[in-house]
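During the reporting period the student researcher (J.K.) took over the structure-prediction task from the postdoctoral fellow and processed the backlog of single-chain submissions. One of the processed entries is reproduced below for the supervisory committee.
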Amino acid sequence: MAALGWLTPRRRSATARSVLAGEAAAEAARKASQELAPAEPPGEPPAEPEFPVVGDDRAAAFFDLDNTVMQGAALFHFGRGLYKRKFFERDELVRFAWQQTWFRLAGVEDPDHMQDARESALSIVKGHRVSELMSIGEEIYDEYMADRIWPGTRALAQAHLDAGQKVWLVTAAPVETATIIARRLGLTGALGTVAESVDGVYTGKLVGEPLHGPAKAEAVRALAAAEGLDLDRCAAYSDSHNDIPMLSLVGHPYAINPDAKLRKHARAREWRLRDYRTGRKAAKVGIPAAAGVGAVLGGTAAAVAVHRRRR
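J.K. obtained the following structure tokens:
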């Protein structure tokens, strides 16, 4: 019994020490395993979540047209096509040529130029049938617009389509022109400026106002409500600071070929930027690189040549 009495407390003490040793070993093993774990490569940011989200049918994408999807302004290209078909005289062509050249050089939308172009277009189409202009618009797309689509922006739109989402153009261009472009690119549809027509004939007036600036945001908001979309899950793309209201409306805004004001705004808010123009000068002033300086000079030369012929 004496021996047993001597052993019992020693066993208890050993048991306590064993527990302590086991805990210490476990803690050491845990620390060692953390130190031996392979470190993540330095400087690599965490992977971005997949976007657009495949199968998210409450999301959609909204694309500005001029200088976002297409180099230059659709309305000016449309005017060139109408002049070729004798819809108006050389004076109007000179104005269209100058406006297009200015647009290429500045890379931004000038409200006065855009308003002037719209008024010219309305006066030109007054009295013509909508069906006639739609048919001609298809031809003009092939002649002046098809080869001016930015491949990078087209790929972004296709990514949304491949994800099962709807893709809409949102533009101040006439809705008929925008609809033709959307159809040719395989997009869902287009929101554009609506010209008044009675019995299928243009009156030379607008319905409301041009779809520009805040009006674009209201159109997107209305379409989203009608389609049951969640704007926080939608994306919008534009090159112009005039479209900040539309870009601010969605959860995924993108600045595409941005003008200076939009670039500054996008960087301040950490919006994603994409610039598909190449060359330092093109990136600075917004000249579509695929068209090149030669196209700009060619547009100016064309205007000068018309003046000379008139004289």
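The committee noted the following: The first strand starts at residue 60 and ends at 63.
J.K. will present the remaining backlog at the next meeting.
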